[in-house]
Design brief:
This protein is an alpha/beta fold and 238 residues long. It is built from 7 helices and 10 strands. It has helices at 9-26, 41-52, 80-87, 109-119, 157-163, 181-186, 200-208, and strands spanning 2-5, 31-34, 62-65, 67-69, 99-100, 126-129, 151-154, 175-178, 189-194, 226-230. The strands form 2 sheets. A 7-stranded parallel β-sheet has the order 1-10-9-6-2-3-5. The chain has a 3-stranded antiparallel β-sheet with strand order 4-8-7, covered by helices on one side. Helix 7 links the parallel strand 9 (189-194) and strand 10. The protein binds 2-phosphoglycolic acid. The site of 2-phosphoglycolic acid has 8 residues, from loops.
């Protein structure tokens, strides 16, 4: 894993945006996997601004949303689909037919997951991931195997608590669906994004600890093209 450490959040955003845009220009028809959550928001804001001023286009790209909570109302602002729409999709020129999202409102979520995995086809070109404070990536919770498929998952208590920051209602999600680690590890390139002091402990464990399934993000360390983007606050324990 290549560690890219920045002395401020502003330089973290600046470099992540420049590199992302360079990748998309090199390969305009990239198959992207993008996360919801708070971590990528300043990056998405920057990408949206660049699309608005005509410096960037997603017109040929395909986007696979990383994960989705189950059991939330269709219009809950905390659904991953809602967050991605609000912060990115409403502001970019990705054709609707190029967007893939995990439909956890469907009656047969297992079938949705199987089809989603198949729709990734030859694989993802560039995968961006946040890191949960428990080391999860997507909703691949601690204990997830490296070859795990896209699937329905039970959330760990810490992930359910973390969802309180996003959802509207009092009822927090206890399950979800996620692209599995196998597809993530097959991605040509992976960016793990972390910023802020709340991620300092898990970043330390990720970088210094063993590679094992108790911290699923650590399984990405041996990927030849995996970059960890951390700002000074997230890097404070290194
Ligand atoms: P966050 O979530 O970006 O809101 O911190 C990351 C995650 O839990 O995967």
């Amino acid at each position: 894993m290549n560690v890219l450490r920045f002395d401020s959040e502003a330089s973290w955003v600046q470099t992540a945006a420049e590199l992302f845009e360079a990748r998309l220009r090199e390969r305009p028809d990239s198959r992207l996997c993008l996360p919801a959550g708070n971590t990528p928001l300043p990056l998405y804001q920057r990408l949206a601004e660049d699309v608005r001023r005509g410096a960037l286009t997603f017109a040929q790209a395909t986007l696979f949303s990383l994960d989705e909570y189950g059991g939330l109302a269709p219009d809950d602002p905390g659904r991953c689909a809602s967050m991605l729409r609000r912060h990115l999709l409403d502001h970019i020129d990705l054709p609707a037919a190029h967007l893939h999202q995990l439909d956890t409102l469907a009656s047969d979520v297992d079938e949705v997951c199987r089809r989603y995995d198949a729709s990734i086809g030859a694989g993802l070109d560039l995968t961006l991931l946040g890191i949960g404070r428990n080391g999860h990536v997507g909703l691949n919770e601690p204990g997830s195997a490296a070859d795990s498929a896209t699937r329905r998952v039970a959330l760990h208590a810490q992930s359910t608590e973390a969802a309180a920051a996003y959802v509207r209602g009092a009822a927090l999600p206890t399950w979800g669906a996620t692209i599995g680690l196998r597809r993530l590890l097959e991605s040509r390139e992976i960016w793990l994004l972390a910023r802020g002091a709340a991620k300092a402990h898990i970043v330390e464990r990720l970088v210094r600890g063993p590679v094992d399934a108790s911290v699923p993000a650590s399984l990405l360390r041996e990927h030849p093209r995996c970059w960890l983007f951390i700002d000074d606050a997230a890097a404070s324990r290194l």
